[in-house]
Write a structure and sequence with these properties.
16 strands, nucleotide binding, Dihydrodipicolinate Reductase, domain 2, oxidoreductase, Gfo/Idh/MocA_domain, 9 helices, 6-stranded parallel sheet, Gfo/Idh/MocA-like_OxRdtase_N
Length: 332
């Protein structure tokens, strides 16, 4: 087997410690080799806790490490552009947390920097590497539910009291649309294989939380009179379902974006008046995401989801935020 790719983790964010680094540890193709923080003690402590060999007290030092192949960026949204470009200029491939940037223009700048440096830039929507999404697409293509009439999805959690959370900083790219609304938007585009034509979003902007959207509900229009209806929030009970409604049936994914248990991987098909469970093998989506990037880097396999897809998703997010702020329908 080829040598493992060595990953450098740019920051000690919760998603890195809780999910991405453990996912790398499970991989036979990738290795979490180094971590950096502007707080050297924090980097050292995290490295010790998560069995990472090297800890750096600056992001720059990590980028200068010639042994590192891939940089993972879990920094606050407003820092994605700067550090993705700096990582590209250092010759590192990049996995950057979603959303890729603050807007589509920034995302395009990041993509251009990666192209110029000859490195790969991938957006970290881990859920779509789970095999069940390929199964869902195959069910749709087979006609199992007839013609698609609509998609419903949501992603909400309840965390309003963590007032120092970066999600509650407007200038840092805070808010529920950026943080969790991006998932239903991305999933609808993935399953329909199309880009939206217009969006209409209503949001609750909280003065207690730097005026970020703490809850948003929207309608996303696609060609053929098919629409996604979604909601997202950071001040509501936890849930993350997805439903594809067809003329002849329904596909349900009760836990669409997170799969903490084997049971949460399963999907449900209702057709011919019968609802049945479709069992899906339990897969760590974070490991699958890293392994997919490995094959693109080492074997030249095209990215499963090209950077252009991330730019397109940012255009939809931009439109949703504009619609919510101006309380109007926005065309794309």
């Amino acid at each position: 087997m080829s040598k493992k790719l060595k990953w450098g983790i740019l920051g000690c964010a919760g998603i890195a410690k809780r999910a991405v680094i453990p996912g790398l540890h499970l991989s036979e193709l990738n290795e979490a080799a180094a971590i950096a923080s502007r707080d050297g003690d924090k980097a050292k402590q995290t490295a010790e806790e998560l069995n990472i060999g090297v800890a750096y007290d600056s992001y720059e030092a990590l980028l200068e490490d010639s042994s590192i192949d891939v940089i993972y960026i879990p920094l606050p949204n407003h820092l994605h552009k700067e550090w993705a470009i700096r990582a590209a200029q250092a010759g590192k491939h990049i996995l950057c947390e979603k959303p890729l940037a603050l807007n589509a223009h920034e995302a395009a700048e990041m993509a251009e920097a990666a192209d110029q440096a000859g490195v790969l830039l991938s957006e970290a929507f881990m859920y779509r590497y789970h095999p069940r999404y390929q199964q869902i697409k195959e069910l749709i293509a087979s006609g199992a539910i007839g013609e698609i009439r609509g998609i419903r999805s949501a992603f909400t959690f309840n965390n309003p009291n963590d007032t120092k959370n970066v999600r509650f900083r407007k200038e840092w790219g805070g808010g529920s649309i950026y943080d969790v609304g991006c998932y239903p938007l991305n999933a609808a585009r993935l399953l329909l294989g199309k880009e939206p034509q217009a969006v209409t979003v209503n949001a609750f902007f909280s003065p207690q939380h730097d005026d970020v959207d703490m809850m948003a509900s929207g309608l996303v229009e696609f060609e053929g009179d098919v629409a996604l209806t979604f909601d997202c929030g950071m001040w509501a009970a936890f849930r993350n379902p997805l439903e594809v409604l067809g003329t002849d049936g329904i596909i349900e994914v009760p836990s669409a974006f997170v799969t903490p248990t084997p049971e949460s991987s399963h999907i449900y098909l209702t057709a011919n008046g019968e609802r049945r469970q479709i069992e899906v093998p339990y897969v760590n989506s974070y490991t699958a995401q890293a392994d997919s990037l490995y094959h693109s880097i080492t074997n030249g396999t095209p990215l499963t989801f090209p950077t252009s897809d991330a730019i397109s998703n940012m255009k939809v997010i931009d439109a949703c935020l504009l619609s919510a702020r101006e309380r109007t329908r926005v065309t794309l």
